[in-house]
Amino acid sequence: MTEATGDLLQGLCIAVTSSLPAADAAVSLMTGRDGGGGPAAASSRGAWRLEELQFGLGEGPGLEAFSSRQPVLEPDLGNDGMSRWPGYGPAAHEHGIRAVFAFPLQAGAARLGALDIFRTEPGPLSPSALSRAVTFAEQAMDLLVDDPDRDARDRDESHSGRPAPRGHQHRDPARRDLAHRGRPHRGRAGGREATDPDIVHDVLSHRFEVYQAQGMVMVDLGVGLTEAMARLRGHAFAEGRQLLDVARDVVAGRLVLDRDSI
Amino acid sequence: MIAVEHLAEVFVEFADTLVDDFDIIEFLEMVTSHSAKMTHAASAGLLLADAHGQLKFMAASQESVRLLELFQLQNDEGPCLDCFSTGAPVVNSDLERATERWPLFAPQAVRAGFASVHAFPLRHRKDVIGALNLFSIDTGQLEPADVRIIQALADVATIGLLQERSIRDRRIMTEQLQGALNSRITIEQAKGVLARTHRIGVDAAFDLMRSYARRSHLRLSEVAEAVVTDPSLHPEITTPR
User: Fold this and answer.
1) Would you give the DSSP letter of residue A178?
2) ipTM score of the complex?
3) Which end of chain A has fewer CB within 10 Å, C or N?
4) Half-sphere exposure of residue B107: CA atoms within 13 angstroms, side-chain side
């Protein structure tokens, strides 16, 4: 993962805490192999350590969300959470956490990690907060897909038996300015700021043709899911077109991305 | 008039499915197939709302690009959106006369060869989580008794979807629905892979995948996931002929 992506993910985590009734947030990358992976960004040092804890213990809401392929919403860590995660629960509770909401970073079969959101008071997220949380998870996924270092993740996704990505850099928040502001990420159609708390959900990027095109590009280019989506989005951005329009061209056979096209 | 025998058959199949470990997309497809057959509708489809309140296509009695487009369109207007917002069924809508009500959807549905449309809300307690959509090629009416039966079918679909009648809070519903929505995305990805691999259309790709899953006694979602992430598991359908 590049430093730029790490910065943006950290900005996203901070944005989560201002947009939602949440004390902290963190993003972790996961490889689906024996709980492999690690923290990628966090809104605070404490949140970073909580993420590390999950991997150390091999249990936790983020890992569970990733493996079950659905959100894990635990509004009462102090009660249900303790038995649910016998190791993680008490430790997180001791850190002052009373509720945790984990969202897998996924799109279909593509899974990259999880977004964990922490509260210091028990209670569920409201429907609108939930909707925003899901949007943040989708944004985090987009950032990872567009990350120039995605090749390593791509190989990992396709079960090729190659080792987990090297060069996975840790971003200890203690070594940087936590008041970081986000900036537009190049290579994304629309160039939207990832840290914008009033995120408008980009409905068009979630139409079925986009996912069909993703599968087609995988075959056309012989790459994994993440790379295929990145190439589609990159092409759309470079051409100044909507992702959905590019996808429709791919599905109709009017456009075949080749190895040389952007 | 819906035959009682058919109804009995449907509920037995539902019961079997709910007891065994099942695939959510296949289950929803079964709901749509039965509701189409029972009402002599040409096609039926099921949409679920995602976390943003957008109606997403999940399953249909037949997969066709044209149908998928008609379902996708209903995010902006149409009978499904209406019944999703109001929680009440939309029944016996003559599409030719519905242009004012649904200026984009009605003409497109007519062009697709349909004459009437019905939509039933998928309800869970006070929430509406989606809609069951039926399309007919004639303007035959559903009788009140039929309407009640199809609504009951939709209600059973909701129970099967949420896997637990006594779900008290919204969060479990959200978790399962998000999982189900994600399963559908995997299927679309797999359709793309197979369509390109065999140089066939996405609809044919779906049929290929589904018939393979059935004769191999595998879950559709599992096959779809493997097609995309580990094709070597199913060389029979992932190797170009």
Assistant:
1) T
2) 0.83
3) C
4) 4
